[in-house]
UniProtKB/TrEMBL annotation:
<dbReference type="InterPro" id="IPR052171">
    <property type="entry name" value="NHEJ_LigD"/>
</dbReference>
<dbReference type="InterPro" id="IPR014145">
    <property type="entry name" value="LigD_pol_dom"/>
</dbReference>
<dbReference type="Pfam" id="PF21686">
    <property type="entry name" value="LigD_Prim-Pol"/>
</dbReference>
<protein>
    <recommendedName>
        <fullName>DNA ligase D polymerase domain-containing protein</fullName>
    </recommendedName>
</protein>
<dbReference type="InterPro" id="IPR033649">
    <property type="entry name" value="MtLigD_Pol-like"/>
</dbReference>
<feature type="domain" description="DNA ligase D polymerase">
    <location>
        <begin position="31"/>
        <end position="289"/>
    </location>
</feature>
Amino acid sequence: MVKQRFAVQIEGRDVELSNLDKVMYPAAGFTKGEVIDYYTRIAPVLLPHLKDRALTRIRFPNGVDGAHFFEKNAPGGTPPWVRLETLPVPGSTKARETIDFVVVDELATLVWVANLASLELHTPQWRIGADPDLMVVDLDPGAPAGLKECCAVAVLMRDRLADDGLTAQPKTSGKKGMQLCVPISGTQDAEVVSGYARRVAEELSAQVPGSITAKMAKAVRPGKVFIDWSQNNAAKTTVAPYSLRAQATPTASTPLTWDEVAEMAMGAGAVRQLTAAEVLDRVEEHGDLLACLLEPGPPVPAR
């Protein structure tokens, strides 16, 4: 197969694109060109959530049915205009002390990573050089529990966090479950934030043990929603809002309204993950439902 390559200019940057007809999502016939088109069109609301955050990409060179790999380090051939930040990675499985992370601050860089078949974009809860400005609670359902059950737990978690003056914002994961994103002060380290998230998760698990677990062991998770407080570990990342996911169809991590969450919890709304096309329509209607995450919130209770 002859590789098709051509250059485009994006906001003054020269970006090389290739193989736009390659199918990334075979079940949906969704091509790499459509992946790049989606990321280009969603960029106005996505880029602020990627800005100043070290990016982990999950690349699928041959589409979602082929092999994939996680990539943190800048690959060979990275254009000189791409922002790189050299950061420590203690405990790296590849015995590296530092990694040159890609930071996506502009449209050209976003298109460049999309052209590398970086379908999934994951970021940490902190901005470079700072303490966490987000707390993330991942709600992971163990079958037969699903998104509906996650929504019910999300409402409980929202109300519990509100008791401590924290405002949670919901989004789907784009896969099975969902996340709650909470803007925090950026003045406490990840250990403090993770400890608080764990205490709240264990509290809710004790209150509703038949439906919720705060334990990571998979043996205790069937039929329950696992509140994964560990996402706040400094080394962890979470799928970015609006990022595509590697499913049969091109679903994306989608911000929701609390009315939608309540309806899904009651079985009154459509309980499913949303596609890239639907996300674009929602943004046109609602704008960025997670814009409030871009401003600092209050500190978490230390104890």
